[in-house]
Amino acid sequence: MKAIRILAAALALGAGPALADDDLMRVEAQGDVPAVMDALVAAVEGAGATIFARVDHAGGAEGAGLDLAPSQLLIFGNPKLGTPAMQANPEAGLFLPLKVLVYEADGKTWLVYQDPEEMLDDLDGIDDDAEYVAKMTGALKRLTSKAAGS
């Protein structure tokens, strides 16, 4: 019973969020969600990465009879960047390939992604200073900046 009270208190205090706010990198974009996502797709393809999926969350919600502001997720990667992380720790595959969400909120369009250093931080064998972490970070910054029109 005591464990249940402790768990309830922890949940009430908001303990254990899935992602800390500082783990997420946000970039304000010019244009609507489809246009920004198209620009992101073009940037990713131009960089030679592979696009695995483009998920239309709002379209899925609409199909279920629900309303959701425009929101799309791009799942993409480059084996030259991701494979070394998975060689260091196969559990990196939980976080890879990379993902960028493009969504609308309060009349603005945003790109958001998880910082690779923070994303892989808790995995044994992954060094925050690893070259592949720096390359993932740089690629996400460049790709989202280009898609944002900045």
TrEMBL record:
<protein>
    <submittedName>
        <fullName>DUF302 domain-containing protein</fullName>
    </submittedName>
</protein>
<dbReference type="InterPro" id="IPR005180">
    <property type="entry name" value="DUF302"/>
</dbReference>
<keyword id="KW-0732">Signal</keyword>
<dbReference type="Pfam" id="PF03625">
    <property type="entry name" value="DUF302"/>
</dbReference>
<feature type="signal peptide">
    <location>
        <begin position="1"/>
        <end position="20"/>
    </location>
</feature>
<dbReference type="InterPro" id="IPR035923">
    <property type="entry name" value="TT1751-like_sf"/>
</dbReference>
<feature type="domain" description="DUF302">
    <location>
        <begin position="55"/>
        <end position="116"/>
    </location>
</feature>
